[in-house]
Design goal:
By secondary structure, the protein is of the alpha/beta class. The chain has 3 domains: 167 residues, Rossmann fold, CATH 3.40.50.300; 87 residues, Helicase, Ruva Protein, domain 3 (Orthogonal Bundle), CATH 1.10.8.60; 121 residues, Winged helix-like DNA-binding domain superfamily/Winged helix DNA-binding domain (Arc Repressor Mutant, subunit A, Orthogonal Bundle). Helix content is 53%, strand content 12%. Strand 6 and strand 7 form a beta hairpin. The longest helix has 21 residues.
């Protein structure tokens, strides 16, 4: 009798729990096939389609750079630049897949994500792991790995092609570049060809002259996509990624326009599209509508901003933080507005940057470096700048933040101060220290 009453009580609690849950989906429902998506993988920014739209010329240039290596000759190193979402990685991976289909080639390719393998030792170990996995597990140092690598290349005149994606994130980049290019001087047969991929055009200027002198590279710049191009890319992916009649052209045009407005970022457009589909799935809607796309655009923008900002060098973050603070709270010089946007004087931003870095006992960079940082931030699509012309304190550079100042300030405060256990300067405190 006692056991039955306990059982009844448990059943009652279980029913009450499920009543409280309301419309919460069961595990079996969550695991069921999506009503919206047919193949979600196709919508991923990391997916490489069989045909890359609007990148035929760039693919051809990568192929030309690799052609000597495929014949067994040392090719020129190639460095690829462009904003996030312009197809740099996709194009290189596309060509790598083509190379793998070619029989009897002397080329051996290693793709390295430098966000993960961010030191000379880790990159060397990744190369060894790809081609000599048993040796890599023995715990050798960088010198041993280098010697093993040179011996392996010379064995049968191999050409090692090393793709360094987000190469600027390598902490000891000078040592890595010098080590890999030095192999060509230390071996009698075979060689090494580098392909570097970066969002930052000027990252090489920070390299030591001895590393620069060994590069002998060709450069390739990827332009941003136009709205019409983004629409075609989205339509191509959506045809396979979504079930029939689940998404209209109106939604695709909206997403393409949003991504074009944010700098022509194909990765952002795919994120928005995928998120819109997920929201429609969660709401159990019959199809994706503009409302879900608008909601997804806001969510994706925050993710993109954090991803970009988190990879910036420390002093670029301080410059961007200075711009965000001044845009949000005003500065010591006259602030210009056109009724919608806020523009700041370059000198005003540099003054705030110096104040911030000195306030936490860091040595500020020179104005020459500061100007380079502004160029990099503009390249990333985080700010816009232009010369004022005559009439405004002579010729001066005006700067505009391209993202909401409050959100940017919050992201950078967390990254620069809170995540490191320090106290972030407040709006008033930062202004008083100028």
């Amino acid at each position: 009798m006692k056991k039955k009453s306990i059982l009844r009580l448990k059943q009652k609690e279980f029913c009450c729990f499920h009543k409280k849950r309301g419309k919460m989906r069961s595990l079996s429902e969550m695991l069921a096939d999506s009503k919206i998506f047919a193949n979600r993988e196709v919508l991923s920014p990391h997916f490489t389609p069989k045909k890359l739209l609007y990148r035929e010329k760039e693919i051809n240039n990568v192929e030309k750079a690799l052609a000597p290596s495929l014949k067994g000759d040392r090719g020129r190193n190639l460095f690829i630049y462009g904003k996030t979402g312009t197809g740099k990685t996709s194009c290189v991976k596309y060509v790598i897949d083509e190379v793998k289909m070619i029989p009897n080639t002397k080329a051996r390719i290693t793709y390295v994500n430098c966000r993960i393998y961010n030191s000379r030792f880790r990159v060397l170990n990744k190369i060894i792991s790809d081609h000599m996995p048993t040796y890599a597990k023995r715990g050798y140092g960088a010198v041993d790995l280098y010697e093993k690598l040179t011996t392996w290349i010379e064995e049968d005149d191999k050409i090692l092609v090393v793709v360094l994606d987000e190469v600027d994130l390598v902490k000891d980049l000078d040592d890595l570049i010098y080590t890999l290019t030095r192999i060509n001087s230390d071996i009698k047969a075979g060689g090494v060809t580098l392909i570097g991929i970066s969002n930052k055009v000027s990252f090489k200027e920070e390299l030591d002259p001895r590393s620069l002198s060994t590069l002998y590279e060709t450069e390739l710049v990827f332009a941003s996509y136009y709205a019409t191009e983004l629409y075609a890319i989205l339509k191509d992916r959506a045809a396979v990624g979504f079930k029939k009649d689940m998404i209209d052209d109106e939604v695709l045009h909206f997403v393409a326009a949003m991504a074009a407005k944010e700098g022509g970022d194909a990765r952002l457009s795919l994120k928005i599209l995928t998120k819109a589909g997920e929201l429609a799935d969660e709401k159990e809607l019959p199809k994706v509508t503009i409302k879900e796309a608008q909601e997804a655009a806001k969510l994706a923008e925050n993710e993109i901003v954090y991803d970009v900002v988190s990879t910036l060098p420390e002093h670029q973050k301080f410059v961007l933080y200075s711009i965000a603070l001044l845009t949000q709270s005003g500065g010591t010089y006259k602030k210009l507005t056109d009724g919608v946007d806020t523009y700041l004087f370059s000198g005003e931003v540099y003054h705030r940057y110096k104040s911030l870095t000195e306030g936490i006992k860091k040595e500020p960079k020179s104005e020459r470096w500061y100007r380079k940082y502004l160029s990099e931030l503009e390249m990333q699509g985080l700010i816009a700048s232009f010369e004022s012309g005559k009439g405004i304190r002579g010729h001066t550079k005006l700067i505009k933040l391209l993202y909401p100042a409050k959100k940017m300030t919050e992201v950078l405060q967390k990254d620069l101060f809170e995540d490191r256990g320090g106290a972030a300067p407040g709006k008033e405190g930062a202004q008083e220290s100028v």
